[in-house]
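Issue: ligand-bound run for iron/sulfur cluster - logging full I/O for the record.

Environment: standard queue, default settings, no custom constraints.

Inputs:
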Amino acid sequence: MRIRQNLFENYEYQEICRQCQEPACLAACMTGCITRDPLTGIVSHDRDRCAGCWMCVMVCPYGAINRDLVNQVAIKCDRCRGRGTPACVQVCPTGALVYALREDRPLPV
Ligand code: SF4
Ligand code: SF4
Ligand code: SF4
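Outputs:
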């Protein structure tokens, strides 16, 4: 997740993965290394199969998938799968981030 500031127009915005129901990143990936869990809705990325082509980076409408230029692989939020409470929720000092159940999606295990 990245917080951007537009200092010219004086606003902030978040580049955060929405775990899209029909992910553009998944559709664009030529190696099939992006998958979506139909139960939890988590969109995951397998870095071992990533070709570093950046198609996913180009098509994500939220700017939420990024380039690891050292390892030449994409990186994205996997909602801290397997970690319990996500790290960003734990460290947010104002409680602006909330990890909660949505009616249409169960929490991941
Ligand atoms: S990286 Fe972008 S396109 Fe892919 S699931 Fe997240 S928000 Fe959607
Ligand atoms: S950078 Fe990796 S995850 Fe993204 S589209 Fe290319 S192969 Fe798929
Ligand atoms: S849920 Fe985890 S991986 Fe996703 S933005 Fe928060 S800390 Fe990063």
